[in-house]
């Protein structure tokens, strides 16, 4: 391994140490609550460290074909220590500001969506529903008006025909209707008794 490759390896591992500090702070901010330890949390920890190990090994493989030396671990430790000493507070403050900006932007976009898209569409749908109900109501009113308009002359014709029928036939029809009504009531009475 040449000196140039060793130098690049040292620089890459210091950078990966800084990245490891950044990744740990970001992970602990979003996915690592202080309370409620659970299997899900331990699974997340295992996946996080596996991904970090794979990423570090990938960078090492790209720089020096994956040759592990003692100074690689020292460079990682130096990069992590440099991050903790120099950049951690700055990064955490920046991360909090970014989170506040993203949350504010999300609320702004949500409010914009509600006021410019959701509420107008809901208003239009309510208007269309009211219009449909009004059309149906007017249609039903017109329909009943037409029925009544035709029913009155038809009722008069029926009354006129009823008066033209001889009295004996009328009384027979009334008795037949009464008998049919009594029969119907009698059948309903027995059906209700049988159901009990």
UniProtKB/TrEMBL annotation:
<dbReference type="Pfam" id="PF09578">
    <property type="entry name" value="Spore_YabQ"/>
</dbReference>
<dbReference type="InterPro" id="IPR019074">
    <property type="entry name" value="YabQ"/>
</dbReference>
<protein>
    <submittedName>
        <fullName>Spore cortex biosynthesis protein YabQ</fullName>
    </submittedName>
</protein>
<feature type="transmembrane region" description="Helical">
    <location>
        <begin position="39"/>
        <end position="61"/>
    </location>
</feature>
<feature type="transmembrane region" description="Helical">
    <location>
        <begin position="67"/>
        <end position="86"/>
    </location>
</feature>
<keyword id="KW-0812">Transmembrane</keyword>
<feature type="transmembrane region" description="Helical">
    <location>
        <begin position="124"/>
        <end position="147"/>
    </location>
</feature>
<keyword id="KW-1133">Transmembrane helix</keyword>
<feature type="transmembrane region" description="Helical">
    <location>
        <begin position="6"/>
        <end position="27"/>
    </location>
</feature>
<feature type="transmembrane region" description="Helical">
    <location>
        <begin position="98"/>
        <end position="118"/>
    </location>
</feature>
<keyword id="KW-0472">Membrane</keyword>
């Amino acid at each position: 391994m040449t000196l140039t490759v060793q130098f690049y390896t040292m620089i890459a591992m210091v950078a990966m140490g800084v990245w490891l500090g950044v990744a740990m702070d970001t992970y602990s901010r979003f996915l690592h609550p202080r309370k409620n330890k659970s299997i899900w949390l331990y699974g997340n920890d295992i996946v996080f460290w596996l991904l970090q190990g794979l990423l570090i090994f990938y960078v090492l493989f790209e720089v020096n074909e994956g040759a592990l030396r003692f100074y690689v671990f020292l460079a990682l430790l130096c990069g992590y220590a440099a991050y903790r000493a120099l950049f951690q507070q700055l990064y955490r403050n920046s991360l909090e500001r970014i989170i506040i900006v993203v949350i504010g932007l999300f609320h702004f976009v949500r409010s914009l969506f509600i006021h410019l898209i959701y509420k107008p569409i809901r208003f239009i749908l309510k208007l269309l529903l009211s219009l449909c109900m009004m059309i149906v109501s007017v249609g039903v009113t017109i329909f009943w008006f037409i029925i009544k308009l035709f029913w009155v002359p038809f009722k008069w014709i029926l009354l006129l025909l009823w008066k033209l029928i001889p009295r004996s036939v009328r009384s027979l029809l009334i008795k037949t209707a009464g008998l049919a009504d009594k029969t119907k009531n009698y059948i309903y009475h027995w059906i209700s008794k049988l159901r009990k």
